[in-house]
Write a structure and sequence with these properties.
One of its GO terms (cellular component) is cytoplasm. With about 350 residues, the chain is of the alpha/beta class. The protein is built from 13 helices and twelve strands. It folds into two domains: about 5-200, Obg-related GTPase Ych/YyaF, coiled-coil domain (DNA polymerase, domain 1, Orthogonal Bundle), CATH 1.10.150; about 280-344, Beta-grasp domain (Ubiquitin-like (UB roll), Roll). It has helices spanning about 15-20, 50-60, 85-95, 120-150, 155-175, 185-190, 225-230, 235-240, 245-260, 285-290, 295-300, 305-315, 315-320, and strands at about 5-10, 40-45, 60-65, 65-70, 100-105, 200-205, 220-225, 260-265, 270-280, 300-305, 325-330, 340-344. It is flat, with a radius of gyration of 23 Å. It binds guanosine-5'-diphosphate and magnesium ion.
């Protein structure tokens, strides 16, 4: 199981350029049996210094990083929600992603057509946002007409649901994204199955090296994607020697963060040191389920140690002998960077 980030934006902004840069260093896909592979889906390693340090202590035969998927989604045009361009396909692709990275054009280039005719990050973001919101509005209206039938039966639960959907619809109608609406956990889980597009975490990336900062929207990242393709061709050592900052690493980690993910590690009795991805707040048995479908059911207990304590111990054996390994049950909440040995 892996998480996926959809690369979204208007045509000719650099989405495929970003995809190319991200997937330049090929990953050995065989190690990730749950990964879906399509031409527009790329599997990218999460850069992780902790994994390397753990491996220095464990000295395994094999070191396997965790991954995230990026999906190069076709360019969106105005009217996509009504099926313009590849509209419906485009929006279905976003629906399947866990988060969105929106590439916004900031670079000037007379040889590359700009769909709206001018460089204007705010306006471009607005166009995309309107399409996402219009689609969500459609989903909300369909949901509401179903709920209204339930309300006729005067069921309390249905009334509450209608209240929630009316609130969300009112918010979206004001042109605001669902991700910014304050909702409690119960409300969030009520909305979850609808996979609202504007409820997904979103990161804006301005593709430029010169344009001014965007004021209205929080553009979190700014880089020149064409340069990044070249940088991605260098090995880590070459980049270090040339003093080149790996901007893409920053981008990958930012995606990881907006998804609210943590990393945990397994050492497989010393054979393989491996990083895995878990939703924050996941339990020991959830973590087991990430490693192997059977592990969730057959989970008995696990030995857990923080990665730094393991490094300080010098070896798994030392950690055990000095009482640093904690034995935990299914419900134990896993912390970021925990190293886990499962007992099934
Ligand atoms: N000048 C310039 N051109 C770029 C940059 N990034 C992408 N391009 C070019 O813009 C064109 C469209 O890029 P592409 O990634 O295919 O855009 P997409 O339609 O969003 O997937 C290509 O010819 C790219 O080489 C950039 O930072 N500067
Ligand atoms: Mg493209």
């Amino acid at each position: 199981m892996s998480f996926s980030v959809g690369i979204v934006g208007l045509p000719n902004v650099g989405k495929s350029t970003l995809f190319k840069a991200l997937t330049r260093q090929p990953v050995d896909i065989a190690a990730y049996p749950f990964t879906t592979i399509h031409p527009n889906v790329g599997v990218v390693q999460i850069p992780d210094e902790r994994l390397e340090k753990i491996a220095q202590v464990i000295k395994p035969e094999k070191v396997t990083p965790t991954i995230i998927e990026f999906v190069d989604i076709a360019g969106l045009v105005k009217g996509a929600h009504k099926g313009e361009g590849l509209g419906n396909q485009f929006l279905a692709n976003i629906r399947n992603c866990d988060a969105i990275i929106e590439v916004v054009r900031g670079f000037e280039d007379p040889n590359v057509e700009h769909v709206t005719g001018e460089i204007n990050p705010e306006k471009d973001i607005e166009i995309v946002q309107v399409e996402l919101l219009m689609k969500d509005l459609e989903t909300l209206e369909n949901a509401l007409s179903k709920i209204e039938k339930e309300v006729k039966s005067k069921e309390k639960k249905a009334l509450k649901k209608k209240e929630l959907f009316d609130k969300v619809k009112d918010w979206v109608s004001q042109g605001k994204i669902i991700a910014e609406l304050e909702l409690n956990d119960e409300e969030k889980s009520e909305l979850k199955e609808f996979q609202f597009l504007s409820a997904k975490p979103i990161l804006y990336l301005l593709n430029t090296d010169t344009a001014p900062e965007s004021k209205k929207y929080s553009i979190q990242l700014k880089m020149n994607l064409r340069d990044e393709v070249e940088v991605s061709e260098l090995s880590a050592e070459e980049a270090k020697e040339l003093g080149i900052q790996p901007h893409l690493d920053q981008l990958i980690l930012a995606c990881y963060n907006i998804l609210d993910l943590i990393t945990f590690y397994t050492v497989a009795g010393g054979k393989e040191t491996r990083a895995w991805t878990l939703k924050k707040g996941g339990s020991a048995s959830d973590a087991g389920g990430v490693v192997h479908t059977d592990f969730k059911e057959k989970f008995i207990r696990a030995e857990v140690i923080g990665w730094q304590k393991l490094i300080e111990s010098g070896s798994w054996k030392n950690a055990r002998e000095t009482g640093q390994l904690k034995t935990v049950g299914r419900e134990h909440i896993i912390e970021d960077s925990d190293v886990i040995e499962f007992r099934i």
